[in-house]
């Protein structure tokens, strides 16, 4: 984040002795001549216009004012002697600075009515133009707060139904788990076996993809590119787009506020659509049989083709007292044990699925 200065504006302070509002640059109350104490903060004026006076801006940049250790009077940071009592200011305490006083009040504030005579006065005025009475501080223009829309909650009925359904699903899952874990044993005889071996055939094919230009493979064909935000960084860079937040006013400790903006920088880059050759499955060669001696297919490959993923599936059909059960061995080693006519103890669950097999000795 980079802090950018938009400009400088006048602040004001309220005299704790008489309640009068004073210009920020005034160190002594214009109404009762009391000095501004160091614990009386500067505030925003109702409408902030940027100061054009270079000398005043230079003063604001010079550093926070100091308070005389003897009489408390506010003096500029450059002063050696107190303007009020001529005391030495080398030990003087600087005002606090850097606090945010509020969002920059750029727009005109509504007029203020005098509480004595009712005359409408501009928001910037501190005294009634008609009767001279001190005017109340105008309310700063309300900052347009983003309207946060609350997600509309589900109705009670919908929630009730949803929880009901969830409950049913949980009950069903538990039932399936319980039922499938309940098993019984039967003795089965191998009726038949089958196997299928398949191997994918892959070919180099043009595949469309998207990537930043410097990451596009060398052999790819770029179809089109467009500028997109690649990253956002704190500091400016050539060609980067500056994105700044709402300006706000910071107390400089001099009666003048600095209007600043936090900015970041969006760096753009070419994001491209391209086609590049990639290995993709385009055919499947398979062999199947009903013996215990499976064989891998051996397809002839054209140029720019290669063999891909291999899959093997085995199946054994048992007969147990006239009922038939299917079992799928994991690998060839297990599969070759199922000689036709051999007898096995089958563990069967409630859904007639074979959970495990062991030789019947
Ligand atoms: Zn006063
Ligand atoms: Zn003094
Ligand atoms: Zn008045």
Describe the structure using short key phrases.
361 residues; mainly beta; OB fold (Dihydrolipoamide Acetyltransferase, E2P); 13-stranded antiparallel beta sheet; binds zinc ion
Structure, explained:
The protein has 361 residues and is mostly beta strands. Among the domains are: 30 residues; 99 residues, OB fold (Dihydrolipoamide Acetyltransferase, E2P); 72 residues, no CATH class. 11% of the residues lie in helices and 42% in strands. It has 3 helices and 18 strands. Strands 1, 2, 3, 7, 10, 11, 12, 13, 14, 15, 16, 17 and 18 form a 13-stranded antiparallel β-sheet that branches. The longest helix is centred in the middle third of the chain and has 26 residues. The structure holds zinc ion (3 copies). One zinc ion (ZN) binds next to loops.
How does CATH name the architecture of the domain at 182-202 and 282-359? Beta Barrel
- How would a textbook summarize the main sheet? 13 strands, antiparallel
Derived from helix and strand composition plus strand pairing, the structural class reads mainly beta
Number of discrete helical segments:
3
Bound molecules: zinc ion
Question: What's the average pLDDT?
Answer: 91
C-alpha geometry: elongated
Count the strands? 18
Strand content: 35-45%
Could you list the spans in which at least 5 consecutive residues all have pLDDT below 50? 142-149
Distance between the termini: 79 Å
CA gyration radius, whole angstroms: 42 Å
Task: Write the CATH fold name of the domain at 182-202 and 282-359.
Answer: OB fold (Dihydrolipoamide Acetyltransferase, E2P)
Percent of residues in helices comes to 10-25%
Q: What is the N-to-C succession of helices and strands? A: EEEHEEEEEEHEEEEEEEHEE
Assigned CATH class of the domain at 182-202 and 282-359: Mainly Beta
């Amino acid at each position: 984040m980079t802090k950018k200065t938009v400009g400088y504006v006048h602040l004001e302070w309220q005299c704790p002795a008489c309640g009068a509002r004073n210009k920020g640059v005034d160190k002594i109350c214009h109404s009762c001549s009391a000095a501004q104490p160091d614990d009386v903060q500067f505030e925003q004026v109702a409408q902030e216009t940027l100061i054009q006076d270079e000398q005043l801006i230079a003063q604001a940049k010079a550093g926070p004012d100091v308070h005389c250790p003897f009489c408390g009077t506010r003096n500029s940071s450059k002063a050696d002697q107190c303007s009020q009592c001529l005391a030495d200011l080398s030990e003087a305490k600087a005002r606090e600075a850097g606090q945010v006083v509020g969002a920059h009040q750029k727009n005109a504030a509504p007029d203020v009515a005098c509480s004595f005579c009712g005359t409408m006065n501009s928001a910037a005025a501190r005294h009634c133009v008609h009767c001279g009475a001190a005017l109340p501080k105008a309310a700063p223009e309300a900052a347009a707060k983003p309207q946060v829309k609350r997600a509309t909650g589900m109705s009670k009925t919908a929630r009730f139904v949803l929880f009901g359904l969830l409950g049913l699903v949980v009950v069903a899952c538990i039932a399936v788990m319980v039922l499938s874990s309940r098993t019984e044993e039967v003795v089965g005889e191998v009726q038949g076996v089958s196997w299928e071996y398949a191997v994918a055939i892959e070919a180099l094919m043009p595949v469309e993809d998207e990537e930043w230009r410097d990451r596009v493979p060398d052999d790819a064909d770029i179809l089109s590119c467009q500028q997109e935000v690649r990253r956002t960084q704190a500091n400016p860079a050539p060609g980067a787009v500056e994105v700044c937040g709402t300006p706000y006013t910071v107390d400089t400790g001099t009666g003048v506020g600095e209007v600043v903006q936090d900015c970041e920088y969006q760096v753009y880059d070419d994001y491209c659509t391209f086609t590049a050759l990639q290995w993709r499955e385009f055919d499947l060669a398979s062999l199947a049989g009903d013996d215990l001696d499976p064989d891998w297919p051996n397809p002839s490959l054209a140029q720019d083709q290669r063999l891909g993923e291999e899959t093997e599936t085995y199946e054994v059909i048992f007969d147990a007292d006239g009922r038939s059960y299917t079992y799928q061995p994991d690998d060839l080693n297990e599969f070759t044990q199922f000689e036709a006519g051999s007898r096995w103890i089958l563990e069967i669950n409630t859904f007639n699925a074979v959970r495990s097999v062991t030789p019947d000795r």
